[in-house]
């Protein structure tokens, strides 16, 4: 049974398939999750959780906003603030599935079911992220999913997970991830290079 | 062999005919189209191929629309009327253009306001719906304002929306939601407000005869609630900013719009006048904003001035501008950003406003751009107009507000958005209400008529 945790709820599932789902959200700008954030969605009537990674965030517009955007200038400060802070524009957050959690452990790969429409989605807490990324197998569904920008998403997820580890454990973590990728992408050296290059300066990353 | 061929041809005929018959009673798919066209040509060899093509193209098109939940209206049956309508609209436009030029001619060298008021005095008290100059500004005067956002002024805009009661629905109730926004020109984020209210008591839902209350009564209640909410917000805002110029905007006329008498209307009118008085006491100027106004008070004035004094009363009803509206003339003569002088309407309702110290004056304002005039009627109480500085601030603020939204004040659009109850909101509310009833063992049911309409509406 999925246990409730005190983490940020970002919205409800709008549409889903077995490889991922899209969340509709109206949360304020500072709380919109960033690219590579780990999130979870209840599946199978809440008995398990699907774990996924945010790989796209698209801001929706509306005719009212389009009309305004043409005419506003920086002097119209009150209107800009009203649009940003009061009229929260719908955000669509796309999530790629990386695995799911059963009673005892995390399983990597596609879940048995997608989450149902209007299920609430929450951001994974630090313990969960550490547990999910303990095995580099979480990268496999991303490498096999042609809809996600794996070359950018995997480094973002790895860096996010590394940030949550003690300083001394980070190098081993990067090495483990690099070895896994080298093994998996042995026949695709271009993508391997693209991903590994982004590991080179992990310290500058800000979550 | 010959019999076989005959049988084949005959069977083929009936097959085609049967297929065509099925098309009449069942929707067809695009794949059927080609076969249908061929069948028509075989069953009705005399039918022209172009007829067959156009008939089936239309049928395919409308069947596709039906599949998308589109209309069952046979628009092709209205083709003649649609063409006649467009010719009529073109003719009417030409007539309007001519009449606007005539009216514009009447406006050349108008007499001074004092003389106008004296000349038209015989019309007062005769239910004349024309305008009279309220100030000493010439009739053809126009006033401009700076093209920049105003400094240190607050606008409070209010609007309302409702769900009307429906005696066929599963639940009998109505809802009013008033929305507002407080917009301070000081760089701060505007503050949106909304207040919904649910009405379900018998005294709310039924009139004295036991009928479900009319849409007009709900609208009346909404109007008084909008004004009460505006007063409440204005009082709070005045407390927070004792010296800032403050305007309270409503979407629609400020002049009371229900000329009929009746206990409910009278009570609502008194509450409305009291609210206007309360705003005055608070130092807040109420403003009514009417987009594309439908009145012709100014044209009535021009016609009256065109008549000789001896024929004034007798011929006042022969106004040649009956179908024209003031805004069309103002589109012709008001430059972008400019407003007219202030006018008053000596109607019975305005006299009652006046008796309560709340006579309403109005002007026309062009909030559009060169080549794209957008005319609004701006209404304000007579007591506020002598404050020239406040009126200039209002003029400037309205121009700025309308500029950002292509000709409609931003605050009014936002107040509307805060008030809006969408069909999705209505459905969500009714789901909650129904769930509540079911938890108490009650099973709400809509009428059979409503149920059938709901089914048809989903096609």
Description:
The complex is a heterodimer of chains A (207) and B (459). Chain A is α+β, with helices and mostly antiparallel strands and 207 residues long. Chain A has one domain. Chain A starts with 8 loop residues before the first strand and ends in a 10-residue tail after the last helix. Chain A has a 6-stranded antiparallel β-barrel. In chain A, helix 5 runs parallel beside helix 7. Chain A has helices spanning 63-71, 77-86, 126-132, 140-144, 150-163, 167-184, 189-197; strands at 9-17, 20-25, 38-43, 48-59, 91-101, 106-108, 120-123. In chain A, strand 5 (91-101) and strand 6 (106-108) form a beta hairpin. Chain A is globular and about 55 Å long. Helices cover 35% and strands 25% of the residues of chain A. With 459 residues, chain B is of the alpha+beta class. Chain B has 3 domains: 2-73, no CATH class; 142-292 and 334-419, archaeoglobus fulgidus dsm 4304 fold (2-Layer Sandwich); 423-457, no CATH class. Chain B has helices at 2-25, 30-43, 49-67, 79-106, 113-119, 202-205, 215-240, 263-282, 297-306, 312-315, 326-333, 348-355, 388-404, 410-419, 423-439, 448-457, and strands at 132-133, 154-163, 174-184, 191-199, 246-251, 285-291, 343-344, 360-366, 375-381. Chain B has a 9-stranded mixed beta sheet, with helices on both faces. In chain B, helix 1 packs across helix 2, helix 4 packs across helix 11 (326-333) and helix 7 runs parallel beside helix 8 (263-282). The longest helix of chain B has 28 residues, at 79-106. The relative contact order of chain B is 0.13. Classes of the chains: A alpha+beta (207), B alpha+beta (459). The interface between A and B is medium-sized, with 16 and 20 residues.
């Amino acid at each position: 049974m999925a246990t409730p945790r005190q983490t940020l709820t970002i919205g409800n599932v709008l549409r889903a398939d077995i490889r991922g789902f899209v969340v509709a959200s109206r949360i304020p700008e500072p709380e919109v999750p960033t690219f590579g954030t780990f999130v979870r969605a209840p599946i199978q009537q809440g008995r398990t959780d699907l774990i996924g990674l945010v790989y796209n965030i698209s801001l929706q517009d509306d005719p009212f906003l389009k009309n305004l955007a043409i005419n506003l200038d920086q002097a119209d400060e009150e209107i800009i603030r009203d649009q940003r802070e009061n009229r929260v524009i719908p955000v669509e957050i796309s999530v790629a599935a990386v695995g799911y959690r059963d009673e005892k452990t995390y399983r990597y790969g596609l879940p048995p079911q997608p989450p149902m429409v209007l299920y609430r989605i929450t951001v994974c807490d630090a313990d969960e992220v550490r547990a999910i990324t303990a095995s580099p197998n979480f990268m496999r569904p991303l490498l096999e999913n042609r809809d996600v920008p794996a070359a950018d998403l995997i480094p973002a997820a790895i860096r996010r997970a590394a940030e949550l580890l003690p300083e001394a454990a980070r190098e081993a973590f990067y090495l483990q991830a690099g070895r896994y990728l080298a093994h998996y992408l042995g026949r695709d050296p271009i993508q391997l290079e693209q991903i590994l290059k982004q590991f080179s300066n992990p310290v500058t990353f800000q979550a | 062999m010959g019999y076989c061929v005959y049988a084949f041809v005959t069977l083929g005929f009936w097959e085609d005919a049967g297929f065509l018959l099925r098309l009449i009673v069942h929707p067809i798919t695009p794949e059927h189209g080609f076969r249908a066209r061929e069948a028509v040509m075989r069953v009705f060899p005399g039918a022209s191929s172009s007829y067959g093509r156009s008939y089936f193209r239309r049928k395919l098109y409308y069947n596709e629309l039906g599949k998308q939940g589109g209309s069952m209206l046979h628009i092709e049956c209205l083709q003649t009327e649609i063409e006649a309508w467009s010719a009529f609209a073109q003719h009417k436009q030409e007539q309007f253009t001519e009449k606007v030029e005539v009216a514009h001619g009447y406006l050349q060298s108008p007499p001074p306001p004092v003389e106008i008021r004296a000349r038209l005095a015989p019309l007062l008290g005769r239910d004349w719906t024309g305008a009279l100059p309220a100030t000493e500004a010439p009739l053809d005067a126009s006033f401009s304002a700076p093209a920049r956002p105003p400094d240190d002024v607050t606008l409070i805009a209010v609007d309302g929306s409702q769900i009307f009661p429906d005696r066929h629905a599963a639940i009998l109730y109505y809802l009013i939601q008033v929305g507002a926004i407080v917009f301070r020109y000081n760089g701060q984020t505007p503050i949106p407000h909304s207040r919904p209210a649910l009405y379900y008591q018998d005294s709310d839902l039924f009139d004295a005869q036991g009928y479900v209350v009319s849409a007009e009564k709900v609208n009346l209640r909404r109007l008084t609630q909008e004004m009460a909410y505006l007063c409440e917000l204005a009082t709070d805002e005045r407390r927070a900013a004792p010296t800032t110029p403050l305007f309270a905007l409503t979407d629609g006329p400020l002049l009371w719009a229900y000329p009929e008498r009746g206990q409910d209307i009278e009570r609502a009118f008194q509450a409305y006048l009291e609210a206007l008085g309360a705003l005055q006491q608070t130092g807040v100027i109420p403003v009514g904003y009417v987009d594309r106004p439908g009145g012709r008070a100014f044209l009535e004035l021009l016609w009256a001035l065109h008549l000789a004094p001896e024929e004034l009363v007798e011929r006042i009803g022969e106004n040649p501008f009956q179908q024209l509206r003031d805004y069309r003339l103002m589109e012709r003569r008001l430059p972008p950003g400019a407003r007219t002088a202030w006018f008053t309407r000596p109607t019975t309702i305005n006299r009652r406003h006046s008796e309560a110290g709340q006579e309403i004056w109005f002007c026309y304002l062009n909030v559009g751009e060169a080549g794209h005039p957008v005319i609004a009627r701006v209404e304000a109480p007579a007591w506020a107009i002598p404050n020239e500085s406040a009126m200039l601030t209002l003029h400037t603020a309205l121009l700025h507000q309308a500029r950002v939204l292509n000709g409609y004040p931003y605050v009014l659009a936002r107040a509307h958005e805060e008030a809006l109850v969408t069909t999705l909101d209505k459905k969500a509310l009714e789901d909650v209400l129904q769930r509540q009833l079911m938890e108490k063992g009650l099973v709400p049911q809509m009428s059979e008529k409503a149920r059938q309409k709901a089914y048809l509406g989903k096609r």
